[in-house]
Amino acid sequence: MEHEVQDHVRMTKKMLLKDVARLAGVSEMTASRALRGARDVSKSTRAKVEEIARAHGYVPNRIAGSLSSQSVNLVAVVVPSLNSFVFPEVLSGISSVLKQSPLKPVVGISGYELNEEEEVIREMLSWRPSGLIVAGLEHNDATRRMLLQADCPVVEVMDVDGTPLRHCVGISHLQAGRDMAAQILARGYRRIGFIGTKMPQDFRARKRFDGFAEGLAAQGVTLVDLEHYAGDSSIETGRALTANMLARQPDLDCIYYSSDVMSVGGYMHCLATGLSVPGDVALAGFNNLQILSGLPLQLATTDACRRDIGERAAEILLQARDSAEELAPICEALSPRISLGQSL
For the chain, which terminus, N or C, has the lower number of CB atoms within 10 Å? Predict the structure, then answer.
């Protein structure tokens, strides 16, 4: 059914301002002024025009006059956060490829909120960028309509577990979770806990958890304890949640974290309390962040190919932009690499 809906949307002709005006029963000038928030348009008319535009994925053009049918040399990049070390490396990959072209990236932050993502993407598309790169495959209906109607190439990144709108490049987070479960079980650990952040807003972290739990269940093992923390990842939070979990379950022999930032916090707790890693408790994280390289003990992790994803996304975008014909959908799954370190 989902595929049928997408196919239907793709076949629908692109909405123009005159179409929005016709559906709203107003002139094009009034519709244009309503979408710009002009004060001389009544609240009811503005609300009606905005709702029709949103329902049909129409994005007003912010470029005035003779430039109105053109695009600018900007690539919109929408990510959930810049607070962690994850997405700056994706941006580095994007920038390294785009610098060979006239295009420059501009970044928008969604805060892991789908409605905020919608607003950010609407504003960015209104400036008619030459391309858009967005993290994740999950969007609300209004955002999906906008992306399908976009006048530029769109590439979804970081994830391949789902149905892309057109082009995507990322890793399977479900499989990454399963693979880490297999490695942990192969080393004899059975009393296992999981600590994750931004649950359930971080769809990719949730998929890793699901894959991890599936991998354990396939071998007849269930999680002894888990913590789905709603806030952001931080070393301080990882330390506190590890302390709480080990207080509840002192005989845990392994903890898997949704991010390396959290696993570093867990390691700090172990150092402060005299627990041996992995003698008393084994630890594993995700992302292979640079902060791991400065620790006295190498923590187990998974390299999520962040820079590679950014580079490949930019390459696909340039390929689509420069193609004489519409580029066939590209979906590439990169292979994450597990590093066992010294903590498993």
Answer: N
Confidence (pLDDT) at 20? 86
* Helix residue ranges, H only, the chain: 2-11, 17-24, 28-35, 43-55, 86-98, 114-125, 141-149, 173-186, 203-217, 235-248, 260-273, 306-322
Distances (CA, A) of 153 to 13, 75, 113, 167, 284: 17, 10, 23, 8, 37
Closest CA to 146 of 119, 170, 106: 119
The DSSP string of 224-243 is: SEEEEE-S---HHHHHHHHH
- 121: closest CA among 95, 99, 139? 139
Q: Could you tell me if 241 and 232 are in contact, meaning their C-beta atoms sit under 8 angstroms apart?
A: no
- DSSP category for residue 190: -
Measured CA to CA, the distance from residue 163 to residue 153 in angstroms comes to 17
* Phi, psi angles (nearest 5°) of residue 309: -65, -45
One-letter identity of residue 175: Q
State the Cα–Cα distance between residues 196 and 185, nearest whole angstrom. 19
Is-contact 160 172, C-beta < 8 A?
A: yes
- For the chain, residues with pLDDT lower than 70 are 1-13, 62-70
**Model confidence over 313-331: pLDDT tens digits?**
999 999 998 888 889 999 9
- Alpha helical stretches, state H, 56-172: 86-98, 114-125, 141-149
- Spatial CB neighbours of 91, under 8 Å, sequence gap ≥ 6: 77, 79, 105, 107, 310
Q: Which helix (H) or strand (E) holds 191?
A: none
What are phi and psi for residue 12, nearest 5 degrees?
-70, 135
pTM over 0.90: no
CA 117 to chain centre: 11
Residue type at 335 in one-letter notation: S
The letter for the amino acid at 21 is: A
Distances (CA, A) of 112 to 16, 89, 134, 204: 30, 18, 12, 11
Residues 179, 173: Cα–Cα separation, whole Å: 10
Are 80 and 48 in contact by the 8 Å Cβ rule? The answer is no
